[in-house]
Amino acid sequence: MLILCTAWSANHAGEPLEFPIGQRQLFLDDRDIERIENVRRAMHQPVKRGAVIKPELAWETALQVRCAPVWDPRQKLFKIWMVTSTPVPGVGATTYAQSEDGITWTKPILRQWEYEGSLENNFVCPAPKLQWPANAILNVVYHPDAADPNRRFKGFLGANRRQPMVSPDGIRWKVLETAPLPSNDESNLSYDKTTRTFIATLKTGGPHGRAHAIATSSDFESWTKPRLFFSADDLDQELGLKHIAARFADARLQQPVANDPSRYNVDVYNIGVFRYESMVIGLAAMYHATGPSADGTNTDGFHLVQLAAGRDLKTLHRLGDRKTFIGPSPVGDGAFDLTQILPPSDAVVHGDELWFYYTGLKYRSRPENPDPDVGAICLAVLRRDGFISFDAADSEGIVQTRPFVVPGGKLHVNADVPNGQLIVELLGSDGKVVGRSTPIKRDHPDAEVQFGHSHAELAGKVASLQFRLMNGSIYSYWFE
Predict the structure, then answer these.
(1) Rg of the chain, C-alpha, whole Å
(2) Can you list the domains of the chain with their CATH numbers?
(3) pTM of the model as a whole
């Protein structure tokens, strides 16, 4: 499914752009664009694959995730950490699962934390006496650049504060003697390999309720002071009224229990922020409050995940005119993501796809006769680089880049032209065509552009690219 959208402009100077070798250039903003003609931008939603990790063991009623699975190259396993609710009220902790393919997951017995008098479970806890919420392991990342192999995994301990800790394998943890990061019950963590920076988003207050601050670190011990980073605004409140009305009008969807217009509000429940190629991506769970909770201590409502992006960690801009990137599944098909949808901290690059492992919860306030299993880890899949495309129809469209310094290596594009063609032209500093590719047809997530002759003589010189597109989409380009 695609959503037509506009782009935001990133300020840039007149100097030629520099494209790092191998870094894919996406079309999420206009920073790299000199001219567009007869094309339109489209935002694409990932395709849902359903719940991949469900509550199946005696101590599981709901599974949630606040991190992305990490790939451990030594053990050749995906690893994931899940916030796990149990049948015992008020008792919960974090469980661990692993997988060879990211689809079929096993839950090994770890014998670290006692539940109902037994250690035969997959709970992971650095201190056996810790209880919820102090025992929560919400956020974990893999640190491939770690000099100390005992610190290759890094994470936060605690649901009401974030205490840094490290591990050699993601199972045996050591809590660091450093100051905790302030946060309420939501946070996310990612690692930017390009800048070697740890990025934490921390729940705080904003102009419309929940918002998120950001803090960064280069060593996982000393952190910048958290600053307000992403919050809801007046436009969110205006759009939220339409989303709430549409929700109550759609009988296919799980309905909130409460409906009190005086309590309608939209805020940012959670946001995952991570580096992806040339961009910083944000996946924001926008919470739509529809009324008070049954006990009056909170609110009932639902989440819609929106897509945002930026060039740095200063500001993120909404994409797709704030349309929904991941929304609810209908009732009746066995889905878990009926009401609460919480995004991961990062995307998993899996071949020519991006895999998003997110939390799906059936209810916010439980209705009469609720299902006993209420939360699972769900998977949605997007084409690699597939957030935004430039699309053209029967008439030829043109996308021309700003001048850039030509790096070495061959040019590649990610394009889908099932019934048309894409021709790429190299323009010299005078704007004249100095190279024209053979036509690219069909679907190519990674197509090498063939110019018919080498363009190596342009390396180090200033040039532009001109994409001439008919009946197709282009997602990204990069130099090998």
Answers:
(1) 23
(2) 2-38+393-479 (2.60.120), 47-383 (2.115.10.20)
(3) 0.96
